[in-house]
Hints:
CATH class of the largest domain: Alpha Beta
CATH architecture of the largest domain: 3-Layer(aba) Sandwich
CATH topology of the largest domain: Rossmann fold
Radius of gyration: 18 Å
Strand content: 15-25%
CATH superfamily of the largest domain: Alpha/Beta hydrolase fold, catalytic domain
Amino acid sequence: MPGDHVIYVEECGNPDGIPVVVLHGGPGGGCSPGMRRFFHPDIYRVILFDQRGCGRSRPHASTENNTTWDLVADIELIREELGIDKWIVFGGSWGATLSLVYAQTHPDRVSNLVLRGIFLMTQAELTWFYGGGAGQFFPREWARFVDLLPTEERNDTIAAFAKRLEGDDENLKIQFARAWTQWESALAVLEPKPTRGSVPASYALAFAKIENHYFSNAGFLREDEQILKDMHRIAHIPGTIVQGRYDMICPPHTAFRLHDHWPASRMVIVPDAGHALSESGISSALTTVMDELS
């Protein structure tokens, strides 16, 4: 790939089936085997890849030459290399952001969009999650997150964490990477398990560094609310929005705004779910959508 990145790509399912590309969250989350389960293997040709710097792609945790536009170019290069004319684009959270930006850039290459846990990379969304809004519902978790910082730096947690994540002290980087990752994971599901193991350092470092890098740069978009302003480019492309009613990371308000700007979309609200792909209601809804598209 351009920029000295080596991207991990895998295919599964039917080589002659309906092509679908899966865009994982984060940025920096990487793919997992569980992401294959929404697609009937006899019907779909499923393409998954780890975005720059995370999962099995290399160099690990690299933010060099790592922007939204690099990822859009990577997706298009994968499509060309695999000889696919059009495909379904399937993504959640940051993967939904990237799906929309890719579709708006290459609308003639997208047959359908299946999106979950809508995130549009706006300043309002970042302020909600990193400025204390979500912390009002999870005060203890929020305190653990911000208590690592001096009081005078807590008004901009993204910038404050960036200084530590990009520093030279490896132990400090891992400490802050784990704190960043654990803050998000603590709010991902409606009913968190009482005990969670420590996040592996390698995963936390890629997730936190890359996510913070993107958020520090407002997703490398040209302006705030760019995605909504560009929805006219894909107004004709059919799609489904699957949204957890109690999503604390990406509140439903954003999903409804997207739906209102997208005439060809339909909305599926999962009444007893939060944000995570793994929640049973979310998984069931996404499986149903993919069965219907087959």
